[in-house]
Amino acid sequence: QQQVKQSPQSLIVQKGGISIINCAYENTAFDYFPWYQQFPGKGPALLIAIRPDVSEKKEGRFTISFNKSAKQFSLHIMDSQPGDSATYFCAASKGSNYKLTFGKGTLLTVNP
Amino acid sequence: SAVISQKPSRDICQRGTSLTIQCQVDSQVTMMFWYRQQPGQSLTLIATANQGSEATYESGFVIDKFPISRPNLTFSTLTVSNMSPEDSSIYLCSVGISGTYEQYFGPGTRLTVT
Description:
- The structure holds 2 protein chains of 2 kinds.
- Chain A has strands at 4-7, 10-14, 19-25, 33-38, 45-50, 56-59, 62-67, 72-77, 86-92, 101-102, 106-111.
- Chain A is an all-beta fold.
- The radius of gyration of chain A is 13 Å and the shape is globular.
- The mean pLDDT of chain A is 94.
- Chain B is mostly beta strands.
- In chain B, 0% of the residues lie in helices and 51% in strands.
- Chain B has strands at 4-7, 10-13, 19-25, 31-37, 43-49, 56-57, 68-72, 75-80, 89-96, 103-105, 109-113.
- Chain B is globular.
- At the A-B interface, strand 5 of A face strand 5 and strand 10 of B.
């Protein structure tokens, strides 16, 4: 049973455009929703995260939007740059046990 | 955050052999985890490495195949035993930062079994 569904599987965006990646979860006990960025040959890097008590969190060009009633959250990358080309994973966990359930990932390509 | 190192960074192993992967953190952490990432796939949790007690394994993973040690709060090892080509993956350790929900990953160990 896939508890976190991520879409799209791949995404191509022009430089300067907005990249949007969506995730939906099933388990209402999840209360922490991070996004990770992974470059080829590297480990995933924590990019930004949100808790359910807020609907939006922004850090630089990266924004998480969270819809608790719909059980969905999304990553928006504003002014996308070729250096943002990577695989992005959404994840979710319950409480402070840290056990992350990952989405299947989105391969983002930003064309110059 | 935390600085996490893994050894080896990559290895090519023969079927039937075992490989031990080391994970070192630059500060004491309560929670350490081991994940597997098969080529082009997402991450799957193998087990939680508990300091001073046996690791807690996720469904589908067993101690005989993936024995884990955690002798202190900064170090853990994962052994991949009796390897087959299906074990070819990236193995990642991660740590949870106390007082937060944040989890950070090491650079990974890329294992190829021939």
